[in-house]
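Tip: read the tokens left to right.
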């Protein structure tokens, strides 16, 4: 899984930010590591000169093997809050998209029970 961090509007793209984001996402998304080819992270500050209640935004897009990409966004008061919120939303969206497909055939049919012979 490749992780790419892009920044804009007042957020500096430092090596430490990239290392932290890489480690954090790999930990949160390790369950989906075989299904994800790349994750793009976009961090920006909506109000570059001012500080506001939820002016930081993090958008994440996961590119999947044999599936459409999954994208989420989260606003927060801090860069950390925006990133962690988007990471949690991405994990939940991937669980929903990929989990449904994997669990599709794992349940028993109502027609295969003991009453099916009746």
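Filled-in amino acids:
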């Amino acid at each position: 899984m490749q992780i790419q961090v892009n920044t804009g509007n007042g957020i500096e793209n430092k090596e430490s930010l990239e290392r932290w984001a890489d480690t954090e996402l790999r930990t949160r998304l390790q369950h989906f590591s075989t299904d994800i080819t790349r994750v793009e992270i976009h961090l920006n500050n909506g109000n570059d000169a001012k500080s506001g209640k939820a002016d930081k935004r993090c958008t994440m897009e996961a590119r999947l093997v044999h599936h459409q990409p999954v994208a989420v966004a989260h606003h927060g008061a801090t860069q950390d809050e925006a990133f962690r919120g988007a990471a949690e939303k991405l994990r939940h969206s991937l669980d929903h998209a990929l989990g449904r497909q994997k669990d599709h055939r794992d349940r028993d049919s109502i027609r295969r029970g003991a009453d099916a012979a009746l």
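The chain has two helices and four strands. The first strand starts at residue 2 and ends at 8.
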